[in-house]
Write a structure and sequence with these properties.
Elements: H1 8-26, H2 32-37, H3 42-58, H4 63-68, H5 74-86, H6 93-120, H7 126-137
Helix pairs in contact: 1-3, 1-6, 3-5
Length: about 140
């Protein structure tokens, strides 16, 4: 776990990137079964990997950040990662699709707010944020 809040920026940016990719992978799908069957399950399987990444990063957040921003379901995200990673055979495609389409957009908004707040409070380093953003754009 990160020793302090300053180290959390890169984890948050990683989650934001994963959510963005998940949004792209599910764009155009309104049905879980259609998404599951698309392209020989490639978008679905890639999405599972990104959900694992989200849970992994959420589990590495500092206690300080988690306690400061209780509107993010940190523990749920980490537990969901464990379910996806360790119970692959029993995953419910409808739950996976619902999480991606209905739960993650509000988490994305809340995380973007956290980045803004913590940059303003100078808990996150602006240069790190700018460097990460530049790398993502390139």
């Amino acid at each position: 776990m990160s020793p302090n809040i300053a180290n959390d920026l890169l984890y948050i940016l990683s989650i934001l990137e994963s959510i963005g990719k998940l949004s792209e992978y599910t764009k155009g799908y309104s049905d879980a079964e259609e998404f599951f069957e698309a392209a020989n399950q490639m978008p679905f399987n890639a999405s599972l990997s990104l959900l694992v990444n989200i849970g992994e990063a959420s589990g590495k957040m500092s206690k300080e950040l988690r306690e400061k921003h209780v509107n993010i379901p940190w523990k749920t995200m980490k537990n969901f990662r464990n379910r996806v990673a360790h119970d692959y055979v029993n995953l419910n495609i409808f739950i996976i699709f619902d999480v991606i389409k209905d739960k993650l957009p509000s988490i994305l908004e809340n995380l973007e707010d956290i980045v803004s707040v913590e940059l303003n409070n100078k808990n996150f380093i602006l240069e790190e944020y700018q460097d990460a953003y530049r790398q993502q754009v390139l």
